[in-house]
Design the sequence.
């Protein structure tokens, strides 16, 4: 075996038995490139690389480690798991755009802000519905701002135009609200809009329940898209649970008793008493009765013991 080649590949981190095996097969005159290819082919891994645990996107994600580069998560299991646990998002594009434009301008930037907010949360299914006539050049009675955003979102397969056409100079527009509710209902997702869709609620009882339970309202605060933390009211689910297919039930946190060990309510006290975990929570009267019973029992046993003597 060529000692120089053996030393070279040992320095590269390959195991000595594998190197000897390859050199015996290829002969002493084998080129270094051929030896290296053979080592790679038989699956010998440099020990140095194994010991250093070189970071690779697949390894990091598979082990659940954090990555400083968000783009590397794309091929991992964790992102697919998290996206599978999040509900699909269907955005009422006209409602969001007009809301961001203070009901005066169709602001496409408002749609982009909403899409970015859900993207950052990890939602992979996001659809925005906008009437087709919004592709036309803006008119004085219907101004549009940042119209190029619609084209960019369409290229990303996020924006969907609902049909419209002109008949004898008059525009015939399909009802985009019906598309929004229907797709969200079929996908078991969430509708993002400040519209209540009352006509569609009256039209279909199943849609009525769905709109009541899955409508996510929002506000724009200084170009910031802000849904409420409690979409269904103070006693409803949190925003995280609302947007999740598998909501996490909150842990019940009992408030500690302000009186502590001085509390005289016994088992009637509604607050948390850590010192009473291992003992029955009796009222003060019940505790006295229990102690009296014990004393009486001990007294009787003592009397019997004295009599026997």
Sequence:
């Amino acid at each position: 075996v060529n000692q120089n080649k053996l030393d070279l590949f040992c320095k590269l981190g390959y195991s000595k038995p594998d190197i000897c095996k390859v050199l015996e097969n290829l002969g002493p005159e084998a080129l270094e490139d051929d030896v290296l290819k053979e080592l790679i082919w038989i699956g010998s891994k440099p020990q140095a690389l194994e010991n250093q645990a070189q970071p690779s996107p697949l390894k990091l994600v598979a082990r659940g480690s954090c990555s400083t580069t968000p783009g590397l998560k794309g091929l991992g299991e964790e992102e697919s798991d998290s996206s599978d646990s999040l509900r699909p998002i269907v955005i009422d594009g006209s409602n969001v755009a007009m809301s961001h434009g203070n009901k005066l301008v169709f602001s496409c930037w408002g749609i982009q802000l909403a899409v970015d907010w859900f993207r950052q949360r990890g939602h992979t299914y996001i659809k925005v519905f906008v009437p087709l006539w919004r592709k036309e050049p803006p008119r004085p009675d219907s101004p549009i701002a940042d119209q190029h955003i619609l084209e960019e979102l369409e290229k990303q397969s996020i924006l969907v135009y609902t049909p419209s056409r002109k008949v004898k100079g008059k525009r015939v527009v399909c009802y985009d609200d019906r598309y929004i509710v229907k797709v969200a209902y079929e996908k078991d997702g969430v509708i993002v809009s400040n519209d209540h869709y009352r006509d569609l609620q009256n039209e279909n009882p199943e849609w009525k329940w769905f709109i009541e339970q899955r409508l996510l309202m929002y506000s724009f605060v200084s170009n910031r898209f802000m849904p409420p933390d409690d979409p269904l009211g103070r006693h409803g689910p949190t925003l995280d649970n609302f947007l999740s297919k598998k909501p996490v039930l909150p842990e019940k946190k009992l408030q500690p008793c302000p009186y502590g060990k001085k509390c005289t309510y016994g088992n009637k006290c509604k607050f948390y008493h850590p010192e009473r975990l291992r003992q029955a929570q009796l009222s003060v009267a019940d505790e006295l009765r229990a102690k009296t019973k014990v004393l009486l029992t001990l007294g009787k046993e003592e009397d019997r013991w004295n009599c026997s003597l």
